[in-house]
Design a protein that fits this description.
42 residues, 43% helix
Length: 42
């Protein structure tokens, strides 16, 4: 259905924020979670 629990609404943007922080720090865009060192070095 695509519905979320009330507790999940606040954490949906967390992954995108972390991915943007990694991009700003390393210059490498990672589009898959979890972000691992292997994905950054590849």
């Amino acid at each position: 259905m695509g519905s979320h629990g009330v507790g999940e609404i606040g954490i949906t943007e967390t992954g995108a924020a972390i991915a943007n922080a990694v991009y700003n720090a390393c210059g490498r865009r990672v589009r898959d979670l979890p972000i691992t060192l292997d994905k950054l070095m590849a």
